[in-house]
Sequence to fold (336 residues):
Amino acid sequence: MDNKTIAVLGGGSWGTVLANLAAEKGFNTILWMRDLAVVDQVNLQKKNTKYLPDYGLSKNLKATTEIEAISAADLVVFCIPSDSFRDIAEKAEPFIQPKAHVVTATKGVEEGGFVLMSHILKEILGDDRSIGVLSGPNLAGEIANGQITGTVIASSSEELQTFFIDIYSSDAFRVYINDDAYGVEMGGALKNIYAIACGIADGLNSGENTVGMIMTRGLAEMSRLAIELGANPQTFLGLSGVGDLITTCASPLSRNHRIGKCIGKGMSVAEAKIEIGQTTEGLKTLKVVWEKAKEKDINMPIVDSLYKIIYEGEELNNSIQKVLGTDQLKDVEFSN
Fold:
């Protein structure tokens, strides 16, 4: 395994951490990004100060702007924001070897339809290609600091799962497997919506009871959507569901939580975006999920309320009731 080459596409905080984890284990690792200044910094100073200023990078990590460099990779990991994911996947496709394992670590949904990142990869790379989905409560800053973290590699391919575990699993970065790639990917995308809601609650100085209710009612909404779209709602009880939901909703390190908190404190959505200054996947996912819920007539009151606030300009008026909306009475909804 030590002569294997790993390629990570995307030089944000998550991409940088994933590339460095592989490099620290002795693998030749390529980190592709578009920013030449950051590439030079990674190669010369072993730093990515734009996203992780205090994180020292391995000598085995080489950054590049040349996407053809991934042609040597045995594993290609996509960490591209959802709005540019398809474009980069199309550019990468000619250089991904037929035997290379491919994994998406992007938690988002493509605008214009409920299209997950693994679906985009299948479209571009071929439906017979085994695709892995990486998800879980994985705040990049904490992983960079060596905090123990659990993640899930989901795929129908046991070979891909085993390969990924051999590359990445360690005492601090613990990798678990799941066969329900669709459910795992859905959980990673959907939880960002409820992190925004919990951030708003935080900005409004709501109590812990309120935050706990948003999380669990959010889980019920996620389950209703999962059942309708064919995922296994039981998957949401694992790391990629409850684990990621709790972490993202509760942590001030989460961009989705932070943008919600800004809105809760009275900022406009435009002002909150400027304040955060990085891609916030939950905003895009919210729009797509709202459209799908309307199409399928799925009751998702938190989604509906957030959509009115963020996309229709409804005033929050310092009221968490505006976020909660009118919910169904049923408590637990984990059955098809």
Q: What stands out?
A: The first helix runs from residue 13 to 24. Residues 109 and 116 are 5 Å apart (CA to CA). The chain has two domains: 5-179, 182-324. The domain at 182-324 is CATH 1.10.1040.10 (N-(1-d-carboxylethyl)-l-norvaline Dehydrogenase; domain 2).
